[in-house]
Automatic annotation (TrEMBL):
<keyword id="KW-0812">Transmembrane</keyword>
<dbReference type="GO" id="GO:0003841">
    <property type="term" value="F:1-acylglycerol-3-phosphate O-acyltransferase activity"/>
</dbReference>
<protein>
    <submittedName>
        <fullName>1-acyl-sn-glycerol-3-phosphate acyltransferase</fullName>
    </submittedName>
</protein>
<keyword id="KW-1133">Transmembrane helix</keyword>
<dbReference type="GO" id="GO:0006654">
    <property type="term" value="P:phosphatidic acid biosynthetic process"/>
</dbReference>
<keyword id="KW-0472">Membrane</keyword>
<dbReference type="InterPro" id="IPR002123">
    <property type="entry name" value="Plipid/glycerol_acylTrfase"/>
</dbReference>
<keyword id="KW-0808">Transferase</keyword>
<keyword id="KW-0012">Acyltransferase</keyword>
<comment type="pathway">
    <text>Lipid metabolism.</text>
</comment>
<feature type="domain" description="Phospholipid/glycerol acyltransferase">
    <location>
        <begin position="82"/>
        <end position="197"/>
    </location>
</feature>
<feature type="transmembrane region" description="Helical">
    <location>
        <begin position="20"/>
        <end position="42"/>
    </location>
</feature>
<dbReference type="Pfam" id="PF01553">
    <property type="entry name" value="Acyltransferase"/>
</dbReference>
Length: 255
């Protein structure tokens, strides 16, 4: 349920419920089509599904919910392959991530999403990566196992350095996993900042206020001079960018 800072009006509750129904309706309708594409292509259309069909599923949800969602590219064309990272503080992030339609992307998601049969089926068939975030050692091992597959197929990967939307502050502490993965893959890091998601929906369900949200896709960050010795410093520098975009300092972040 949304907290006091994002208290919804009755009309917003109704729009939210309708948007949830639209999302699952689109998901159910499109799932057989996705399965047929993946089966007949022997999995070769996985990227097409993520890039083209996933946005088709989620984009009708935004107008029903009363959300004006925009994508702003700060560097022209989107760079890939890369490790994309996002700030994560809202359930709404699920929709905005899928709406991006990023090229050849695979998502690193929490293990519990597989409890939904549709997410389990689609996630496994399209090669998404599910990790147990509460068990950091196993999460790191899972990421390492997928590095060779991602590199071999020229795939892009998206992760949330904060790990979970439930973290202290507007921008939570950054975990090392995404940055170690960038080192192992020898990929640049592309920061994506979701503006407005947190203000529209902080609850654990897709209940949202009406308003605007923007996905800011920033220029790639070169990691060619990164190593294990300077990794912590580099991570802090990237987190500082997110603090700047969020308009907070370390002192005001947790307020």
């Amino acid at each position: 349920m949304a907290n006091s800072r994002t208290k919804l009006t009755p009309a917003e509750y109704l729009r939210s419920i309708l948007s949830i129904l639209v999302f699952f309706f689109m998901l159910i309708i499109m799932t057989p089509i996705i399965l047929l594409l993946l089966i007949f292509s022997l999995g070769r259309l996985s990227s097409f599904v993520v890039e083209k069909i996933a946005p088709l599923i989620v984009k009708p949800v935004f107008p029903v919910a009363g959300i004006d969602f925009k994508i702003k590219k700060h560097s022209g064309e989107i760079h890939y392959p890369a490790v994309y990272i996002i700030n994560h503080s809202s359930t709404l992030d699920i929709l905005t991530i899928l709406a991006l339609g990023l090229p050849r992307v695979r998502f690193v998601a929490k293990w519990q999403l597989q409890y939904n049969p549709l997410f389990f089926l689609l996630g496994r068939l399209t090669g998404q990566v599910f990790i147990r975030r509460e068990k950091s050692d196993k999460a790191v091992q899972t990421l390492k196992k997928n590095v060779s597959r991602i590199k071999r197929n020229g795939l892009t990967v998206m992760l949330a350095p904060e790990g979970s939307r439930k973290h202290p502050g507007i921008i939570g502490p950054f975990k090392k996993g995404p940055f170690r993965m960038a080192l192992d893959l020898q990929y640049p890091i592309v920061p994506i900042y979701f503006e407005g998601n947190r203000e529209l929906s902080e609850g654990g369900f897709l209940l949202t206020k009406t308003g605007s949200a923007t996905a800011h896709i920033y220029p790639p960050i070169d990691t060619s001079d990164w190593d294990l010795d300077n990794l912590d410093k580099k991570i802090d520098q990237v987190r500082d960018l997110y603090m700047k975009w969020a308009g907070v300092t370390e002192e005001t972040n947790n307020k």
